[in-house]
Amino acid sequence: MKKLLLAGSYLLIGLQAISQTSFSAQVKKYIDYDSSFIAFTHCRLADVKNLKVLEDQTVIVRNGIITAVADSKKLPPPSGSTVIDLTGKSLLPGFVLLHEHMYYANYSADFTYLHVKQLPFTFPKLYLACGATTVRTAGSVEPYSDLNLKRDIDQGKILGPEMDVTAPYLEGKGSIFPGMHELSGPAEAKAFVDFWASQGCTSFKGYMFVDKPTLKAAIDEAHAKGLKVTGHLCAVTYREAAEMGIDQLEHGFSVATDFVPNKKENACPLFAAPIASADSPKVKDLIRFLVDKKVIVTSTLAVIYNMTTLDTTIRPEVLEAMSPDTRNMFLNVYNKMRNSLGNKAMLEEMKMEKMFSDAGGLLTVGTDPTGSGATLAGYGSQQSIELLTQAGFSPIEAIRIATYNGAKALGLENKIGSIEVGKAADLVVIDGDISQHIENIRKVTWVFKQGVGFNSQKIFSSVKGEVGKY
């Protein structure tokens, strides 16, 4: 039964409830609200679809679904609802972040050998605490760990966001990472996609040394199964990938090899990519081409920024979260890796991402907790969103990129990504106003995932000194 309430511009709809999850004792201790009927009142609401911040709003949630949104003067809290007064606070959609990993980069003491360490306990917690209610892993090194992690989160055994699990990397010969399989060619790529799709992976990612025939075979097979492919590419250029139908490209334009002079076909000119000027005709032409091909681009500004001397301050919370040995490794790597060589490239990257969005391209955002190690899950996720404002986006535009745009990229914009009637109550409560100061997204009070409210600060506190252990 539907009832149209003419007093306000909202609908109250009878909806099928989201199935209730049974939470473990370890998860329950972080839950502040687990009511089937909630009224959020007097909030400052981020209307990301219309790029507005609406004052003094009420949001009604029944069984994990948003059933009404209206001005608080027109919508009093219904009888029997759990009322949460958000006076002075902002209500955002849950973040949908698209370049996430459940692993962290580790380096040998002499900085000569890179490997990654799976952190399936602390990283999901950090993602949820920062406001991320849905993430795509964008490449797995321990795929069964990621798949089982998703299962355990879905079953309420442990804390974490909804997960789109990306399969192991689609990599070619010459990989610099010892944990990656090197595909032999198109036939193996097709079988690889078939196998990992059968195991439950819901997306794929091309990597630096994969060649054009192998990537094309993987894209075609994934698309035949209704699954999407992104890429952090090198041997294959952005234009070549777009021509073969890739859905998304990672790291903005910072890894595009389209502008490398005399680039050889199917060869990765590792560390040879020049600093492209955002004002160059070649860059503008590539942006138009990607927009025409409807290729999505993921911004990962934090992981790039943390390797430049533009980055001058490490958040104390980041260092406090790390275990002592991880902190020592990080400080050693950070001081060696951070230099001024990438400063100009970082500034040009920001310009290109803004140009791409202004041209009609769908820009999303992710964390990528690798690089110098400064970009931790959660904390780095917030920084990635904040840096979008340095690229020229307004705070509400940056929030849209981190929410609605991510949902669109996953094909879930009718279910998540904005605060609208009929969508899942994936919500972030911020103590402060995000309309003027994007840094207020660090002040997370609660994260609601399908209507269940988790205490963000309790979660952050639970991982202090633990990140890097597990």
Automatic annotation (TrEMBL):
Keyword Signal appears in the UniProt entry: yes
Taxonomy, superkingdom: Bacteria
Pfam families xref list: Amidohydro_1 (PF01979)
GO molecular function: hydrolase activity, acting on carbon-nitrogen (but not peptide) bonds
Secretion signal, residue range per the UniProt entry: 1-24
InterPro entries the record matches: Amidohydro-rel (IPR006680), Metal-dep_hydrolase_composite (IPR011059), Metal_Hydrolase (IPR032466), Metallo-dep_Hydrolase (IPR051781)
Gene3D superfamilies: Metal-dependent hydrolases, Urease, subunit C, domain 1
Domain Amidohydrolase-related stretches: 129-451
Cross-referenced PANTHER family: ALPHA-D-RIBOSE 1-METHYLPHOSPHONATE 5-TRIPHOSPHATE DIPHOSPHATASE
Name of this protein: Amidohydrolase-related domain-containing protein
Annotated organism of origin: Puia dinghuensis
